[in-house]
Amino acid sequence: MPPITPPTPFTPRVVVYHQTHHTPSGTLISLLPLLTEPSDFIPITHLILAAIHLNTPAGNIHLNEHPPSHPCNDSLWEELRILQDVGVKVLGMLGGAAQGSFRRLDGTDAEFEDYYCPLRDCVRHCGFNGLDLDIEEDMSLLGIIRLVDRLKVDFGEDFLITLAPVATALQGGRHLSGFDYEALEVMRGSQIAWYNVQFYNNWGSLTGFEGYGGIINRGWKAEKVVAGVLTNPTNGTQGWVEMKELARTLSMMRVLFPGFGGVMGWEYFNSLPGGEERPWGWAEGVDKALRYR
């Protein structure tokens, strides 16, 4: 009988959102320092490119202000391919604060097909490893189930589907998405890789671990709950945690919550402590906090 190999310990994810792609003068904000500057390891496991919007008429899809194929994005796509080549998973983010995309995917079957099919083609063209669904508008439970099911049918089991609820959504409180996340997890949890939970903008806090613990105490699996914070206080109204305090909290959370799902930061371009000059420093700092106990 061959020796039994012990299971590989779960490594918490380090997820970074990237929405501000260029400086005001149009210069690309490069992601490559995430690969070249840290001294030990590539500090992120996943990068989520924001934000994809479905506009009217159907097929009018934008990545922020321009279509994904706009020449201003050419160098961005080249860098994303490099990240993927070294093992970083790149997801697209659909939705966010600009509403409308999920309302357009929550209509009749015919309306769904009108808006979904161009989105499917866009995801294929962009070569994403998955799609993050940031639903900050009312959507029905049946509507989100229909979307998840179609994504899995069209892209297969290896395609990552994540959602980005505010923290209260997993604590049984008021939230932004309309449907019940606990019901979604019961019905389609096997198809959802994890949840990028927003502990910021007055929906939660990571100054301690009580808010995260409240989610786990409701029965959520720690490996599916990624704790999200602002990387700079200017990126939201509340929820930035200074690096030393964040590192202490994350180290404690990994001990208290076996299988801890990881941390995500909104967003890359001005992440502290390095700011716009060294934005990769945030990911490096949280990676070390999670890696070395």
Which short descriptors sum up this protein?
293 residues, alpha/beta, eight-stranded parallel barrel, 9 strands, 18% strand, globular, disordered N terminus
Write a structural description:
This protein is of the alpha/beta class. Helices cover 32% and strands 18% of the residues. The protein contains 9 helices and 9 strands. An 8-stranded parallel beta barrel has the order 1-2-4-5-6-7-8-9, surrounded by 5 helices. Helix 8 packs parallel to helix 9. The radius of gyration is 19 Å and the shape is globular. The N terminus is likely disordered.
Quaternary structure state of the chains depicted: single chain
Helix content: 25-40%
Biggest sheet architecture: 8 strands, parallel, barrel
Q: What is Rg?
A: 19 Å
Poorly predicted runs are: 1-8
Number of strands: 9
Characterize the overall form. Answer: globular
Tell me the strand order in the biggest sheet. 1-2-4-5-6-7-8-9
| Number of H/I helices | 9
Q: Given the helix and strand composition, which structural class is it?
A: alpha/beta
Strand content: 15-25%
Order of helices and strands: EHEEHEHHEHEHEHEHEH
Distance between the termini: 35 Å
Short description:
Helix 8 (243-256) links the parallel strand 8 (225-230) and strand 9.
SSE arrangement:
Elements (H helix, E strand, L loop, with lengths): L12 E6 L14 H4 L9 E10 L4 E4 L10 H12 L3 E7 L5 H4 L4 H18 L3 E5 L6 H15 L4 E4 L17 H8 L5 E5 L11 H8 L7 E6 L12 H14 L5 E5 L14 H11 L2
Parallel strand pairs: 1-2, 1-9, 2-4, 4-5, 5-6, 6-7, 7-8, 8-9
Antiparallel strand pairs: 2-3
